[in-house]
Amino acid sequence: MDWAPNREVNVYPLSKKYTFALACRLFMSIKDFKHVAKVAHPFHLITSGLVSVPIDFLGVPFNHAKKGGKMLRDENDKGLNDMEISDKIVGLFLASFGSISATLTFVLNYLPEFLDVHDKTYWSVHTTNRNPKYFLDPEKFDPSRFGGKGPAPYTFVPFGGGPRLCPRKEYS
């Protein structure tokens, strides 16, 4: 929504918005963009005051952080200790949101300059399981390729149920 219609974008604010929405979905099951925006404001107030002088005057970052914390606690409807919930939520968001936003920004900034790195590091189940370097005629159904010693380590990534590995395991 925010990226595609634009010819040019300021990546860092958009990556922060994206990772915040993703954190809302993962940590609090919030999918509605209006609700994400409602939670974003107090969270940004809190983060702005995290490394500030702890003086509680109107208009200073510490004061904003206290207000943001109160706003998030007031949103709590789970019947748990408000302070514990808000501390855990802020901790989860800080651990995920800030560093991932910065990382995404750097990746998007430098990737066009180093496309060869992308080609060398890109991995997918499809490209691994169908690589002719490891499997002769990889598109052909040939169960005998798994006989004997089987494929070399890390050249075949099975997936599905039972004892097989899920490809998302590596991404997690």
TrEMBL record:
Highest taxon of the lineage: Eukaryota
UniProt KW Hydrolase keyword: no
UniProt-recorded name of the protein: Beta-amyrin 28-oxidase
Family from the record: Belongs to the cytochrome P450 family.
Molecular function terms, GO-annotated: heme binding; iron ion binding; monooxygenase activity; oxidoreductase activity, acting on paired donors, with incorporation or reduction of molecular oxygen
Membrane spanning stretches: 89-111
InterPro entries, per the entry: Cyt_P450, Cyt_P450_sf
Protein's UniProt keywords contain Cell division: no
Lineage, highest ranks first: Eukaryota, Viridiplantae, Streptophyta, Embryophyta, Tracheophyta
Pfam families, per database record: p450
UniProt keyword terms in alphabetical order: Iron, Membrane, Metal-binding, Transmembrane, Transmembrane helix
